[in-house]
Amino acid sequence: MATTEDLDAEINDLHARIATLQAHRSNLASVLLSQPHLSARLQTPNQKAKSSSAAQRAIEQQSKRNLENIYRACTGVTAYKVKDPDPSAINNGNILGVSIDVSIGGKFIETYHVLLNWRERIGNRLLKIHKHTIPPCIPLQHLANKWLPTSWKDAEIDPEQDLVRFGRLLRKELVSWHMRVKAVDDLKQEAGISSLKPRDANDGEVANAGQTLNAFVSDDEASSDVEEDGIEEGPVRILDIENDAAVREITITWSDRRVAVMTVTKDGRIEKASCRARDGGRDISMSTKAIGPIGGLIRRLKQPMSERGVQQQ
């Protein structure tokens, strides 16, 4: 006789299968309703009027959905109206919203919103950012000051605003940022950092505290011995890859205590790199190899120590 746990497991399995079949049915219905000649076939006299009208409504809804998806994929910036529920809001709560869709690799990653209010002046509307969901690392205020200025040198002349240019450049900044984030994530996976097991936090704190105390109370030879103990034996590997919030600077740390700091452009290329060798000198060869796209960074740097030809200053 089946137990309660077995029955619950079977019920959950049935629910999962039903959800999968419903999703499959929805996909098949979307493909069928998107056929270009289906609407003309339904208008033949052999079809029943009631079933034909219901199918026609479904086709129209699918056509609107397809048009919206195409617009979001091609344009990425949409303006809409929204009402501020605050009774003391300016302009009776009327707000202009700008929706920015970011898609990478054929998938929608995130949707950001910028809400704008305005003030009337001599028949013109001067837009001003009210609220937004843009990350702090994106230069939103810089773009707003350039393309949506609210003041001018001459107080009697209204500044010229360009909302279209503002939306395009803001979306470009967001897409570039997401692509840089994805490139760094791919670097970490290629370097195998995500698969490494993190050390116990307490052990790390004790070890760091012990090394700090030894550095204070011991002489130079003893402190150098502590530093030598911190170097891992075996093949050199990447220990960590760090980046700032805007992904404009990347720091790579190796197991032999080499550290490389790299400057990244907005389009995801490393334009400057500075690698510090184990003895504190600069590794010119490694710094030169780092220049290029982020995507091939690990491949450019992953070479045997004997083939690197380290040059130091």
TrEMBL record:
It comes from the Eukaryota. The keyword Protease does not apply. Keywords: Centromere, Chromosome, Nucleus. Its main location: nucleus. It is found in: Chromosome, Centromere; Nucleus. InterPro entries: CENP-O (IPR018464). Pfam families: CENP-O. Belongs to the CENP-O/MCM21 family. PANTHER family: CENTROMERE PROTEIN O, INNER KINETOCHORE SUBUNIT MAL2. This is Cenp-O kinetochore centromere component. It comes from Phaeosphaeria nodorum (strain SN15 / ATCC MYA-4574 / FGSC 10173).
